[in-house]
Q: What sequence folds into this?
């Protein structure tokens, strides 16, 4: 096989990538809205970000435009920074309340 | 245009996947059944315990882990991810020339400044 | 560009300054840096040049533009921070262990804000949003042992990163529909999509809607406002002030640029109804919600929601061009100055009396006439009373919207400002009409430098209200 990676990506129709990414994204959104554990909510957010990455990579291959892939790099780096801060916040809360259930945090009413 | 289907897929095209799936399931069932039928069966108290040998397990596996592991892991992730910016740079090293090299030096310098900050802050000291 | 470099380098230097236990040096250093950045930015504004040249700058192959638009809003944000930071002296006095880090994070977040108003490429916009937001998550939780602060940080972080995902999905769909991240090229591509295109046009519409949701979250526009009161209440007061001024200015100015450059023209037909609905809802929820509050910080949170609504008027009136840019600029300047004054007073009172409900302000007029006066001027400006900067801010916004024919919206906004007067008067009544509680009637300590800054804040507010021409010609 001497196909380049964009060519391999283009062997599957673009709609499939869009549907797949949208499905992943929707699962992530549903998870954020229904789960009550901060760490699981956070994992769902990561799922959303990765759905975006897939979408960008697919568009980038179909458009033959590298900008989309560069954007993916930046999303990854920013997501790592977000993980660091987010887990830091969760650890800080765990030290104070010994739990990561968001329902316990009701000192500030919605 | 962009969204137009580039190839049409027939249901028959997915047959290899089905065959693969069937084979995988069949292998699992086959090996379980055959090992059950063929293998010798002897029961004893020692043989049925979860660990036949080694030292006795002590306590719960889910003990609190020192937050230092967490810090180190997070720092690893942070510095690890920055490497992805070096791949495009390395691939285009010749085209980017001296400017690109200086820019990457600056980038690494900023990362090193962060690393120096972490060391000065004493986060990597394991003892205290 | 110089402002970004200066802020980043001094933020880094500041981190290392913290090692020398020279805590007293840090605040003057940061203030000096901010003053220098403000000087560089304001002196660089070319008031005779073109209003904005969207695609001219050489920085990063045209991804960043430092035209007049970017410089003026950078100036507003840096000025706000400069005026806010003197009230952090209590952290210095208490010998807070992470003092240098807080200031550095603040400087870095300001870099994010500047990127959000000077971007020319959605990549930079995203990086700016994240630089600003991630810094704010940390600052929201900076009171580490206080559960309220922890909770505010967690809520802000979870909602914020959720929003980031939505914003990014929007950007990805826009990229799919137009094939570019560059604003000007995106504008061309959007105009080139035929109106009847069944594939790309819906994709672009969904992408734009998702971006609208994402930015709506960041500037706390209804119906994406629900995190605001909680986060504002739990966050340490100083950083709440920063959140409600700099973050809002950057968000609105950045989003205006996106809509103006890439989605002006006939695309406006698509997003205008959505934005109008958001505006009406935001104004209503912000103003009506503020009436019911008993906590001054929560009241200011709802008030900041309502101000996001007023600022959206300028986005609705986007077609009026220079008029609405000027309105955003003047309004965000007047609003920032008044909000900084209000939060400064709340912070000083909180430092001593340890509470931030209305009753905590009781009797302030007797114990601290200066503080009470500053708070009064701030509240009047936020309410939009004549002779304060807030009046002309609202005036410019309403006239821009009226020029574009949104008379109904303007009437609704005026009615809502009338509701605003009611709740802005409540802290004033608490300060002037009610006696202080037993045991807490000692004067609140205000440093000499802080008093000077407070007087400056009042002077700025009144100056903007008496002579709005002083900043005229920026746009």
A:
């Amino acid at each position: 096989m001497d196909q380049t990676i964009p060519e391999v990506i283009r062997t599957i129709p673009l709609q499939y990538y869009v549907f797949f990414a949208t499905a992943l994204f929707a699962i992530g959104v549903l998870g954020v809205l229904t789960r009550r554990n901060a760490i699981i909510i956070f994992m769902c957010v990561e799922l959303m970000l990765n759905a975006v990455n897939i979408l960008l990579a697919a568009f980038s291959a179909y458009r033959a435009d590298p900008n989309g892939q560069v954007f993916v790099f930046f999303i990854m780096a920013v997501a790592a920074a977000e993980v660091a801060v987010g887990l830091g916040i969760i650890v800080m809360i765990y030290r104070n309340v010994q739990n990561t259930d968001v329902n316990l945090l009701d000192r500030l009413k919605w | 245009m962009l969204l137009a289907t580039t190839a049409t897929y027939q249901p028959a095209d997915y047959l290899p996947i089905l065959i693969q799936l069937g084979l995988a399931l069949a292998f699992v069932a086959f090996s379980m059944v055959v090992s059950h039928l063929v293998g010798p069966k002897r029961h004893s108290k020692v043989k049925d315990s979860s660990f036949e040998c080694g030292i006795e397990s002590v306590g719960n596996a889910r003990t609190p882990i020192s937050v230092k592991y967490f810090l180190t892991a997070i720092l690893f992730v942070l510095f690890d991810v920055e490497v992805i910016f070096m791949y495009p740079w390395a691939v285009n090293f010749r085209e980017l020339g001296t400017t690109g090299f200086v820019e990457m030096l600056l980038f690494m310098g900023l990362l090193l400044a962060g690393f120096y900050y972490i060391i000065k802050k004493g986060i990597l000291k394991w003892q205290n | 560009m110089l402002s970004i470099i200066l802020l980043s380098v001094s933020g880094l230097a500041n981190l290392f300054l913290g090692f020398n236990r020279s805590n007293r040096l840090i605040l003057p250093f940061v203030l000096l840096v901010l003053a220098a950045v403000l000087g560089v930015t304001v002196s660089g504004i070319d008031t005779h040049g073109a209003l904005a040249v969207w695609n001219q700058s050489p920085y990063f192959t045209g991804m960043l533009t430092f035209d007049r638009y970017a410089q003026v809003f950078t100036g507003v944000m840096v000025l706000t921070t400069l005026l806010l930071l003197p009230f952090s002296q209590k952290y210095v006095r208490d010998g807070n262990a992470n003092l240098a880090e807080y200031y550095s994070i603040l400087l870095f977040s300001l870099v994010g804000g500047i990127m959000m108003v000077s971007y020319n490429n959605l990549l930079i916009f995203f990086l700016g949003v994240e630089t600003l937001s991630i810094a704010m998550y940390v600052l929201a939780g900076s009171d580490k042992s206080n559960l309220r602060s922890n909770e505010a940080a967690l809520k802000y972080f979870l909602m914020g990163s959720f929003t980031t995902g939505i914003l990014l999905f929007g950007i990805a769909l826009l990229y799919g529909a137009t094939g570019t991240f560059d604003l000007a090229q995106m504008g061309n591509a959007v105009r080139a999509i035929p109106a009847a295109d069944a594939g790309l046009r819906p994709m672009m519409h969904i992408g734009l809607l998702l971006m609208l949701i994402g930015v709506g979250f960041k500037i706390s526009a209804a119906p994406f406002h629900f995190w605001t009161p909680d986060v504002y209440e739990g966050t340490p007061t100083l950083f709440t002030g920063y959140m409600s001024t700099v973050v809002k200015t950057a968000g609105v100015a950045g989003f205006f640029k996106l809509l103006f450059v890439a989605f002006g023209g006939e695309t406006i037909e698509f997003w205008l109804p959505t934005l109008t609905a958001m505006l009406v809802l935001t104004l209503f929820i912000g103003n009506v919600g503020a009436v019911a509050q008993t906590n001054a910080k929560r009241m200011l949170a709802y008030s900041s929601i309502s101000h996001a609504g007023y600022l959206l008027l300028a986005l609705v009136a986007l077609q009026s061009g220079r008029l609405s840019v000027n309105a955003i600029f003047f309004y965000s300047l007047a609003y920032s100055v008044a909000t900084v004054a209000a939060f400064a007073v709340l912070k000083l009172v909180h430092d001593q009396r340890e509470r931030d409900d209305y009753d905590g302000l009781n009797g302030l007029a007797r114990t601290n006439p200066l503080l009470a006066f500053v708070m009064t001027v701030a509240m009047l400006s936020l309410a939009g009373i004549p002779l304060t900067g807030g009046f002309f801010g609202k005036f410019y916004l309403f006239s821009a919207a009226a020029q574009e024919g949104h008379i109904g919206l303007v009437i609704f906004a005026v009615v809502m400002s009338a509701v605003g007067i009611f709740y802005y008067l409540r802290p004033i009544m608490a300060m002037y009409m009610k006696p202080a509680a037993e045991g807490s009637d000692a004067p609140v300590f205000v440093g000499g430098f802080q008093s000077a800054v407070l007087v400056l804040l009042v002077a700025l507010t009144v100056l903007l209200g008496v002579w709005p021409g002083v900043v005229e010609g920026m746009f």
